[in-house]
Amino acid sequence: MKTILFIIQKEFKQIFRNKGMLPIIFVLPLIQLIILSNAASFEIQNIKFSYIDHDHSAASRELISKFEASKSFKIVNQFNTKEEANLEMQKGNIDIILEIPNHFERSLITEKNTTLSVSINAIDGASAGVENVYVSQIIGTYNQKILSHLLQYNDGSLIQPQNIVTIPSFWYNNTLNYKTYMVPGILVLLVTMIALFLSAMNIVREKEIGTLEQINVTPIKKHQFIIGKLFPFWILGLVILTVGLLIAKLVFQVPMVGSLVLIYAFTSVYLLLILGIGLFISNHTDTQQQAMFISWFFMVVFILMSGLFTPIESMPQWAQNITLLNPIRYFVEIIRMVMLKGATFKDITTQFSIITVYAIALNILAVMSYKKVN
């Protein structure tokens, strides 16, 4: 035990002696958490909106005023012809073109229906889908209002419009604040990146400077060396989690409904898994550059298939099956369930068991792959 403590003490001294590494470990992740949580938004604002009004009626002007009053849309221009509008969309100056046909108001009064043409720049398919929803909501609201006015009389008798009023109830995020959803997930990414990169470059650094051979010929046992090398990064991961949770609560006001003890318990096992991956990478690389590239490759795959930015349910079935091997997926699910829903250990038993088995298996492989001269 004393040997392990001496190795741990040495590792902490090396970490804090490296003045260039300290900001990377402690400062940059916190800056990233603050910046990314504000930047990674699913909301779309300042949509460049234009229209072509062929009718110039009270009904068409009222419809356009609905878009002007919306915070999501920015009226860029009014065009006389569709060709002019299409040319501006090709240049990237506008995102949406609304074309109101001739006799728009008359068709509403006489035929009780009409058509509108909406062209959306769909180079960014995800944004175009959201913009289409925004447009449909405004037109739908306008449609209900205009019908309630037009259908007041039928055959000389007054008809009372029958409206269905929907009262939504938003659970777990009643203010619909996207930061409440994003901050826990981004915190998971930062904890994972720091733990993986540092552990992957740790042993390979000893190879580069030539001290690993010296350590291998000492009486230090393999398990003592590995525990002593990885334990400091396990502590650092928990420290970054703690600071990140404080920022989430104090800066972003993210609710913490569930047990923090449960979050730390899961994170403790999760960090063992990530450190095992880092050790495995370090054992099979010869330079820190190689370790960094391989770690980054896995991180990109883990991030894109974690469900943080793209719902797992929207992925193809083969991709959903691959995400079952992604540890970040389980951590993102757990931290959101515990923080936002107040989930208990019973609710996360499946994820906890998968990560535990995953951690044991990978650490066994990592330890077996480490070669030490006895």
Question: What would you call the quaternary organization?
Answer: single chain
For the report, how would you describe the main beta sheet?
Answer: 4 strands, mixed
Task: Count helical runs.
Answer: 14
The number of E-state strands comes to 6
Mean pLDDT over the residues: 82
End-to-end distance: 19 Å
Could you state the order of secondary-structure elements as H and E?
HHEHEHEHEHEEHHHHHHHH
Q: What is the beta-strand fraction?
A: 5-15%
- Coarse morphology: elongated
Strand order of the largest sheet: 2-1-3-4
Q: Estimate percent helicity.
A: 55-70%
Rg, Å, rounded: 29 Å
The low-pLDDT segments are none
Structural class: alpha/beta
Account of the 3D structure:
This protein has 14 helices and six strands. The protein has helices at residues 2-17, 21-39, 58-69, 82-90, 104-110, 125-150, 178-209, 211-216, 222-250, 260-283, 288-304, 317-323, 327-341, 349-369, and strands at 47-53, 73-78, 96-100, 117-120, 153-154, 157-158. A four-stranded mixed β-sheet has the order 2-1-3-4, with helices on both faces. Strands 5-6 form a two-stranded antiparallel sheet. The longest helix has 32 residues, at 178-209. The model has no long low-confidence stretch (mean pLDDT 82).
